[in-house]
Amino acid sequence: MNCLELRRAVMVDPRRLDTEALAHAERCDVCRGFLADALELEAGLDAALSVSVPHGLKERAMGRARDDPRLSRRYALAAGLMLAIGAGTTILWRQNDPLALAGIDFVVFEESQAILDAKPSDPDDLARVAVQMGINLPWQLGELRYIGTCPFAGTMAHHVVLKTAYGKATLLLLPGRTQLSRAAAVARGLEAVVAPATGGSVAIIADSSRSLARIEESLQNG
Amino acid sequence: MLVPGRNAGFELAVNAYFNDLYRFAYWLCRNRWQAEDLVQESLVRAWRSWQGLRDERAVKVWLFTIVRREFHRAVSRAARPEPVTDADDLASSADMASGMDLTRALRELPDDSREALLMQVLGGFSCSEIASALGASEGAVMTRLTRARQVLRRRLDPADARGMRQA
Ligand SMILES: [Zn+2]
């Protein structure tokens, strides 16, 4: 690592330098001084960002969250249904399709790692798979941010990340996974559908139902 | 209790991250009253889709992402998303800050740079975590963070900034 590389790394994140960068700073006086200044700025940043939290706000916010009328109604309905059918299972959760929910979990918990781990794949391969599955890839909806392959729900998925006008969306093309009917889930601030396709299925995960609807429509109609 | 532990898990997560979430909201809005609304609305949304305690780190990223999404939703609803800065705000944050200059420089950072910097410093997230939360590439996040620090250094010490541009 040379001085220029060290300075670049320090400007990105002076608190997470790797051992190579730290070793350079140790033996190079100029960079050691640069790093010391940077860490001083970080200390100043910590202090400046630590505005005081209004007294009682946490309790008010928690109270409001749990009294949310929309949620209470949903709970009341679910509880009523449970009484009616006498089942001890959680009705609320049953509305979420497991595969669609797995798509949401993938985006929240695994997607960034999958992108880091995978070798980005050839757009032509993806286009071929899409044709085989009878899917029109919705390029007109947004900017293509990433394509690659990764394991998902016991099969190999073609993983596509799109930046649309409505926000980020993820597509998982699942050639090996047949699906008889459309399934959906809403969780963790995201929405997902799994739609049947020729010889497989496609999962779409987005942060709004509007975005999801637009993408689903264009996958089918091109 | 419909789902045992749902409530307790949520409370644990909120207790652990509330201060950082409020500060994140504050520095997005740059206004105390808007930040209070934002953080409350975000918790309502979070609780609606809360299904249990998962990996702690992922929960933290998730909560920050909700605050950010609610902020952008609010901004897009407002006709003119200018932050209203009242004197109280500046005074109270300046009390906590090592200097008024840094506070002011932070307020004036470009939105995308400030957002990335807040997620890094307040959230403690890595560039790849920030990239995935913002829906941006890791390279773009690194550029935003570098720009943010360049601006802050330049504001605090114009002589120092010249050295930085050579870096
Ligand atoms: Zn050096």
Task: Give the helix/strand layout.
The complex is a heterodimer of chains A (222) and B (167).
Chain A: H1 3-12, H2 19-27, H3 29-49, H4 57-66, H5 69-85, H6 91-94, H7 98-117, H8 123-132, E1 142-152, E2 155-164, E3 167-174, E4 183-187, E5 190-197, E6 200-206, H9 209-221
Antiparallel strand pairs in A: 1-2, 2-3, 3-6, 4-5, 5-6
Chain B: H1 6-29, H2 32-49, H3 56-77, H4 87-96, H5 100-107, H6 111-121, H7 127-134, H8 138-156, H9 158-166
Helix pairs in contact in B: 1-2, 1-3, 2-3, 3-7, 5-8, 6-8, 7-8, 8-9
Bound molecules: zinc ion.
What brief labels describe this structure?
heterodimer, A: 222 residues, alpha+beta, Protein Transport Mog1p, Chain A, 3 domains, 9 helices, 51% helix, flat, B: 167 residues, mainly alpha, Arc Repressor Mutant, subunit A, globular, binds zinc ion
Q: How would you characterize the overall build of this protein?
A:
The complex is a heterodimer of chains A (222) and B (167). By secondary structure, chain A is an alpha+beta fold. Chain A is built from nine helices and six strands, in the order ααααααααββββββα. Chain A has helices at 3-12, 19-27, 29-49, 57-66, 69-85, 91-94, 98-117, 123-132, 209-221, and strands at residues 142-152, 155-164, 167-174, 183-187, 190-197, 200-206. A six-stranded antiparallel sheet of chain A has the order 1-2-3-6-5-4, with helices on both faces. With 167 residues, chain B is mostly helical. Chain B has two domains: 1-80, RNA polymerase sigma factor, region 2, helix turn helix motif (Rna Polymerase Sigma Factor, Chain: A, Orthogonal Bundle); 95-162, Winged helix-like DNA-binding domain superfamily/Winged helix DNA-binding domain (Arc Repressor Mutant, subunit A). In chain B, helix 1 (6-29) runs antiparallel to helix 2, helix 3 packs across helix 7 (127-134) and helix 7 (127-134) crosses helix 8. At the A-B interface, helix 1, helix 3, helix 4, helix 5 and helix 7 of A face helix 1, helix 2, helix 3, helix 4 and helix 5 of B. The site of zinc ion (ZN) has 6 residues of chain A, from helix 1 and helix 3.
